[in-house]
Amino acid sequence: MIAFGLTTIFLIQATSGATITATQPSHWTSWQNVSVSWEGIPPPLTLNSDWIGAFINNYNTTYIKFINVPAGDSSSGRAQFRLLNARHDYIFRYFRGDDVLATSNVIQPDQSKPNQGHLSFLTSVGDPIPSGQMKISWTTATPDPGVVRYGLTTDLNLTAISSVETYVAKDFTDCMGISPIEPRNRSFENLSTRAIRCGFNCYDDPTSSELFLHPGYLHTASMLNLFPGKKYHYSFGGNKSKERSPIYTFTAPRETNDDKSFTFLMTSDMGIGGIHEGESGSAIDNDPNHNHTGYPNGIGNGADVVVRDGILADPQTKDDEFIIINGDISYARGWPWIWEMFFDLIQPLSTIMPMMVGVGNHEVDSHENPFIYTSNGDSGGECGVPAASRFTHLTSPQKMYYSFTHGLVHVIVLSTEHPIKDQVEFFKDDVAKLNRKKVPYLIVNLHRPIFISRNEGYVTNILRKAYHQLFVDNAVDIVYQGHAHYYERLCAVEMDATNTNNVSCSSIRDRPIYIVDGAAGAEPDMTSPFSDLTNYKEFGKWGYSRMFVEANSIELRHYAAKIATDGLSVELPYTMTDSIRLERK
């Protein structure tokens, strides 16, 4: 499944007599402990001189994980690596510095099973949305069409065939309008430091083509003729039992004007979790780990503790009907293995409820971006290609905005990373078709904040001029934003149309309420000023928000936990730290 197969020429070939052997695991469908042994290693073995890297076979840029071999005079040893099945084979190399002393046999995870399952609603970019449908997407190692089996019982008596797509390295540079960049076929020159990654400036180049790894084959199937609000069972994959997922359940989309109460989740700026021992400088090390007072080892990414210890551990989650991730989804920024890790993290959630996404600056920053100074840096040249390919409710890398209705709520997801004019027209046309007597609540999601207590300058002014009065005129209830890595609730805002910096809290309107919530795991902003628009603000916490929709009101509640001093966990439990309730107009 690798798109390129050139072999790195390391500084020296395997040393005569030195060997390293990996034991092939059985039933390797998800995570697996892999045993590696070595012998015949020549002296000298000094502190930190020798190390072993687990590599994706034929992907030589950097390792997935490493271990340091203890100093001493032993010529043999044994260790374990915990590795993810993401459809690619692994190989191990024993290094002394940058020199390879031995290369192992290839080991193969079970590539027959589908993975990366995620549900989504059908969405509109102008056309009516067919009712009673749900999409399921997944990834396989082969291009053969798959099938989803589904039904009201575990008999799964209904079927739908999947479409199949993928993307290639050239798609990134084509999207950016630049010349092709050949995939890298050699390791980084400073591999032996085991610390090749650094801060934000490392991402300021279009790495996606150079670091390309085949994403697998991306399937999508539509489950049709669903009874609204009913519980369905489903399984996806190939035709043979060994090629299929477990049986999951979901609740079919609600009908418009269904006035029964329900809840859904919203969050933003997620990632995959912090790096741990043996992952520094690896293909998943996308975390600068900045220093903060009170955090001796810095603060990593907390997406794993938000998802596992927060959302999935929350007893309310079993009743939530969908989740929106509002941009800066995986923080892959051109490093493809991070997308594999993200979907492994989110699959327990995205297989039980639809996962809808917006895009942020770390998914899209190309010639299409209206904010020139971020061009080609923030996403490492992804240009929206992985996001549009993996989340099929995003039309294309050039058109990543949409809307959907669920019961009493209409959601419009806009992109702050694409030209605004077409989106303004889309918003106007979309709202004009909406019957607010049947669908009273209107929520807008977009990544970069329109209003925020800190000064965002140029970008903020563009967004304010384009959208604020439009949202006021169309009675938007809540504008949910991300980008800043903390939680803040602002008031309903009055703005001078001739001076976008002349703002104040409204004395005549209670909406739209502007929420900033980029607390889903990204390395946090620990300080920023309060402003006259701030009603509530908190730092140093990771969390998520939940909307409670009722016939006569809508309420947003935010849940958070303080980041622990290790910078990788939280001080449990998650508790509700803020809420805002708006009555139906």
Assembly state: single chain
The helix-and-strand class reads mainly beta
Number of helices: 6
The termini sit apart by 54 Å
Q: Could you give a short account of the major beta sheet?
A: 8 strands, mixed
- Give the CATH superfamily of the domain at 263-583: Metallo-dependent phosphatases
- Which range does the strand content fall in? 25-35%
Low-confidence stretches: 1-13, 367-374
**CATH arch. level architecture of the domain at 263-583:** 4-Layer Sandwich
Level-1 CATH class name of the domain at 263-583:
Alpha Beta
List the helices and strands and how they pair.
Elements: E1 19-22, E2 31-39, E3 50-56, E4 65-68, E5 77-84, E6 90-96, E7 99-103, E8 115-120, E9 134-140, E10 147-151, E11 158-161, E12 163-165, H1 169-176, E13 217-223, E14 231-237, E15 248-251, E16 262-267, H2 303-311, E17 320-326, H3 337-350, E18 355-358, H4 385-390, E19 402-406, E20 409-413, H5 421-432, E21 441-445, H6 458-473, E22 478-481, E23 487-496, E24 499-505, E25 513-517, E26 534-538, E27 541-549, E28 553-563, E29 570-583
Parallel strand pairs: 16-17, 17-18, 20-21, 21-22, 22-25
Antiparallel strand pairs: 1-2, 2-5, 3-4, 3-6, 6-7, 8-9, 9-13, 10-11, 10-14, 12-13, 14-15, 16-27, 19-20, 23-24, 23-25, 23-26, 27-28, 28-29
Describe this structure in words.
The protein has about 575 residues and is mostly beta strands. Among the domains are: about 20-105, Immunoglobulin-like; about 265-585, 4-Layer Sandwich (Purple Acid Phosphatase, chain A, domain 2), CATH 3.60.21. It contains 6 helices and 29 strands. It has helices at about 170-175, 305-310, 335-350, 385-390, 420-430, 460-475; strands at about 20, 30-40, 50-55, 65-70, 75-85, 90-95, 100-105, 115-120, 135-140, 145-150, 160, 165, 215-225, 230-235, 250, 260-265, 320-325, 355-360, 400-405, 410-415, 440-445, 480, 485-495, 500-505, 515, 535-540, 540-550, 555-565, 570-585. Strands 19, 20, 21, 22, 23, 24, 25 and 26 form an 8-stranded mixed sheet that branches. A 6-stranded mixed sheet has the order 18-17-16-27-28-29, covered by helices on one side. A hairpin with an 8-residue loop joins strand 3 (about 50-55) and strand 4. The chain is globular and about 80 Å long. The model is unreliable at about 1-15 and about 365-375 (pLDDT under 50).
